[in-house]
Design a protein that fits this description.
Residues 1-14 have a biased composition (Basic and acidic residues). By secondary structure, this protein is mainly alpha-helical. The chain has helices at residues 2-20, 70-86, and strands spanning 57-60, 63-66. A two-stranded antiparallel ribbon has the order 1-2. The radius of gyration is 35 Å and the shape is flat.
């Protein structure tokens, strides 16, 4: 009998939850205003920002330069730290 009791209780909770949800409708009063339209020409200048992609490897006067991977960067950082501690 436990199982069915639990099931019934769940459905009751759901029903109660459904009952609790009430939507309030707000009435909006619309006022009509007469507007004189003045035409003004606006010039919009669009600035395009170019995002530079960081390239993994690139050449500067014939020499290929490659960026370090995350692992390499971490290792150099650790090496520097070690050197500092030795001093």
């Amino acid at each position: 009998g436990e199982l069915e009791k639990k099931g019934r209780n769940e459905t009751e909770n759901v029903r109660r939850r459904r009952r609790r949800r009430r939507r309030r409708r707000r009435r909006r009063r619309r006022r009509r205003r007469r507007r004189r339209r003045r035409r003004r020409r606006r010039r919009r200048r669009r600035r395009r920002r170019r995002r530079r992609r960081r390239r993994r490897r690139f050449r500067i006067n014939g020499k290929t330069i490659r960026m370090k991977t995350g692992k390499e960067r971490a290792n150099t950082y650790l090496k520097k730290k070690r050197e500092k501690n030795c001093r």
